[in-house]
Amino acid sequence: MADLKERLLPPKPQSAVNLRDTSYRSSTSGRQPFQGMDFLGLKKRGQGLRSWIRVDASGNSQVIEVDKFTMMRRCDLPARDLRLLDPLFVYPSTILGREKAIVVNLEQIRCIITADEVLLLNSLDSYVLQYVVELQRRLTANGVSEVWQSDAADLYRRRGSRNFDNGFGSPSPDYLPFEFRALEVALEAACTFLDSQAAELEIEAYPLLDELTSKISTLNLERVRRLKSRLVALTRRVQKVRDEIEQLMDDDGDMAEMYLTEKKRRMETSVFGDQSLVAYRSTEGASVSAPVSPVSSPPEARRLEKSLSIARSRHESMRSSESATESIEELEMLLEAYFVVIDSTLNKLTSLKEYIDDTEDFINIQLDNVRNQLIQFELLLTTATFVVAIFGVVAGIFGMNFSIPLFDYPDAFKWVLIVTGIIGFIIFSAFVWFFKYRRLMPL
């Protein structure tokens, strides 16, 4: 990994010209130019060279520096597709099938896959280096067996056999074309990266949530809040990858568009057929000297040529439809395998989110219970305060400036306290019985 990292490091840039100093030079009119943002640098930023890692079908890798317009002409891609791979912008995960390339933007893996090579944005990220190493390993390991597999596949297709998978076992990555292998490694890297992040989140989340249920504190609540924000962001990314794979599986046209090797073979076959037909016509024109009347029937050679061309076109259309169906099935099986993986990751995150929601509900129930207990205590305290206030009323009545015969008895004060206490206790008991009858407190 260290040797590959040193090989794939971009060369150190030379000392650039200080454009800021030249922008501050005084103009001929004596005025200072605009001393704000360097718009010239911003304009040329999108046209500058960018480092790419190129991996060909043999597994050889090299670092190349290509500007944006050259890459557009090389891969026949519009500028908006290359904008998806720009690290300066943040775009959701996307897989686009074009005429000559597949644009892949899956987490850290941002690459362009053609029928012959993979162009990956040069980065020091470990997942990018692992993608290059894994792709090279699979290409070099399967390079020897590709020859007889492709020849056997062509032979079985020429014979019209539909049991190709039964003759060679179950479909495996060895039978996939180059672009599907590169796409598989990209899907595997993205799914592995997201699954590892989900596993780390699970390891951190469950002990923290258990601690929060036993001890509710401001620190634990803040940690759970940050954990939930990370969970929501990760779930959104996983959901986007899952939706992208599901959208590809639901659209046969998009899957057929991604079969680049088959389209390249058809194009080469059509070009070779056109060249042979032109050569045949030139040879026939040189051999036939007598003019042909437009009224008379065509000669036997032209009839044979016409019938052969019709049969060839029917045969080619039948082969192309069968191969397209097979390629769609192969790609659909590949996408379905990683759809199961990413769906499992999404289920983990969903279960974790449900656990967080259950923990929040449990905490809310605990807080509601404490709040109810406080309300009950406040209700009892208010009732007791009301009973004690009766003594204040009695003391206020007897403290008025008038004389009554009760003041002449020496035991009057004792009886007033006893009677007031009994009345207060009866009132307090009546309130408690009423609260219990109305089920305002569990007594």
For this entry, give a set of tags:
single chain, 443 residues, alpha+beta
What does it look like?
The structure is a single chain. The protein is of the alpha+beta class. It starts with a helix and ends in a 6-residue tail after the last helix.
Produce a short descriptive summary.
The protein has 443 residues and is α+β, with helices and mostly antiparallel strands. The chain has helices at 2-7, 19-23, 39-45, 68-75, 79-83, 126-142, 145-158, 164-168, 178-214, 218-250, 252-257, 260-287, 300-398, 412-437; strands at residues 50-56, 61-66, 94-97, 102-106, 109-113, 117-121.
Task: Give the helix/strand layout.
Elements: H1 2-7, H2 19-23, H3 39-45, E1 50-56, E2 61-66, H4 68-75, H5 79-83, E3 94-97, E4 102-106, E5 109-113, E6 117-121, H6 126-142, H7 145-158, H8 164-168, H9 178-214, H10 218-250, H11 252-257, H12 260-287, H13 300-398, H14 412-437
Antiparallel strand pairs: 1-2, 1-6, 3-4, 4-5, 5-6
